[in-house]
Design goal:
Oligomer: single chain
Largest sheet: 5 strands, mixed
Helix content: 40-55%
Shape: globular
CATH class: Alpha Beta
Strand content: 15-25%
Length: about 230
């Protein structure tokens, strides 16, 4: 659910900036790649949101966003240290969350898919987070990432962590945060309402306004319907 909320906030934010967007763009290494391993590479990975802005030039024409709505927040320093092997990895190796940045065969497949989709070889890659901790800038200068995403910029959303050289300042950050908080609260209310409807539906003691009208007013099948 958290990933869905963050992804929708990113979508809203990009559309507000004039981008056309598409979600869940998949990719995987080609089977004839010399490093291809069927057990590891046969299942597609994806990026959450891709935006295209026909009025912009350079890397800002296309923006690719991977959403990481992790409950403790995103520790940029720790995660990069895990990728580099300087810090012990969790049970799921960290590179598996950043294949397109860290593993050349996945980067090749990722960039090929973005090129096919947008016609652009170079683009802005952003990691969207709910809370950014640690140092963000080293992600934009790491040699492995730069080698795998030659000609692209790398940074974070919200924009306060956007280290690709196009930070928009506190107004954009506040807008992003307000949208995220509003959508999270709305999602929570929907879930609470759904639980309430299931409870009242089980007891048969209450129907929402309007449910007794129309077909429900005739009794029979319509009278049992709950939204």
């Amino acid at each position: 659910m958290k990933e869905d909320v963050l992804e929708q906030v990113v979508d809203d934010y990009l559309k507000f900036k004039g981008y056309f967007t598409i979600h869940n763009v998949g990719f995987r290494p080609r089977s004839d790649h010399p490093d291809y391993v069927a057990a590891q590479d046969s299942v597609r990975s994806d990026v959450d949101v891709v935006g295209y802005h026909p009025g912009r030039e350079g890397v800002d024409r296309v923006i690719v966003v991977s959403c990481k709505a992790w409950q403790p927040g995103f520790d940029a320093t720790a995660k990069l240290a895990e990728l580099r092997g300087e810090k012990k990895n969790p049970k799921k190796e960290t590179w598996k969350n950043f294949r397109e940045l860290w593993i050349p065969k996945w980067s090749e497949a990722f960039r090929g898919e973005i090129l096919k989709l947008s016609g652009e070889r170079n683009f802005a890659y952003r990691i969207a987070v709910t809370r950014l901790k640690g140092e963000a800038e080293p992600w934009s200068t790491d040699p492995t990432i730069l080698n795998n995403l030659v000609g692209c910029s790398v940074g974070f959303l919200p924009p306060r962590g956007d280290v690709g050289g196009h930070a928009q300042g506190t107004d954009d950050n506040a807008c992003f945060e307000r949208d995220r908080s509003t959508r999270a609260a709305t999602q929570g209310r929907r879930l609470d309402g759904s639980r309430s409807r299931r409870r009242t539906g089980a007891s048969g003691s209450r129907l929402r306004s309007g449910d007794a009208g129309g077909r429900g007013g005739r009794g029979g099948r319509g009278g049992k319907r709950l939204n």
